[in-house]
Design goal:
This protein has four helices and six strands, in the order H-E-E-E-H-E-E-E-H-H. With 188 residues, the chain is α+β, with helices and mostly antiparallel strands. The chain has a five-stranded mixed β-barrel with strand order 1-2-3-5-4.
């Protein structure tokens, strides 16, 4: 009987991508079919620090903690402040679409899509406003999300980079916010 139970349980293979990038276009999406969801764009930073490029991901925000954090960033993004995050994405896929207006109207293009699973830290205009608690290191292969915690050098370099779009240089909050439930509704 235990063999039957073990064989009917679904197994999943996760693909997680970690990086640093700018948070943009936070929005609530209400599809014609299905439940509304929170979405955002992440402009991931790639390449050498003196010649960075950006890879844009259209993300569905998954998980309560990630949703709370993205919602807290909405006012800063709307104010065109530079909101830099260290993120974990999952389930990457592509979507082909056709431009409906503008110079490229009628042309097809590819959109990179993912689920935004985790945010490790948030900087607004270069000031650290959120730092997640460190997870204990799992056994190899148990939790790829926690295993993917490298990039310390990238964190130092990324604060000096410019976002892919012009942002407001107004003063950012200087206090370090904790991730307690009392602060979950507070914006940056």
């Amino acid at each position: 009987m235990s063999d039957k139970t073990a064989s009917t349980e679904k197994q999943y293979y996760d693909l997680h991508t970690t990086g640093i990038g700018y948070l943009n276009r936070i929005r609530e999406v209400e599809p014609k079919k299905g439940k509304p969801f929170l979405a955002c764009d992440v402009a991931a930073i790639v390449g050498p620090s003196d010649e960075v490029e950006y890879r844009r991901f259209d993300c569905t925000v998954s998980g309560k903690e990630a949703q709370n954090l993205v919602r807290r960033c909405a006012a800063a993004v709307e104010a065109e402040k530079k909101v830099l995050i260290r993120f974990t994405l999952g389930d990457l896929w592509t979507d082909i679409f056709t431009y409906e207006k503008g110079e490229k109207k009628g042309q097809q293009a590819v959109s990179l899509k993912a689920r935004l699973l985790r945010i490790d830290w948030i900087k607004v205009n270069g000031e650290l406003v959120y730092q997640a608690e460190k997870k204990p290191n799992p056994e190899p292969g148990q939790d790829a999300e926690a295993e993917a915690d490298n990039g310390t050098d990238m964190e130092e370099t990324a604060t000096e980079l410019s976002p892919p779009q012009d942002g407001d240089d107004s003063e950012a909050p200087t206090e370090l916010l904790d991730s307690s439930a009392a602060d979950s509704e507070r914006s940056f």
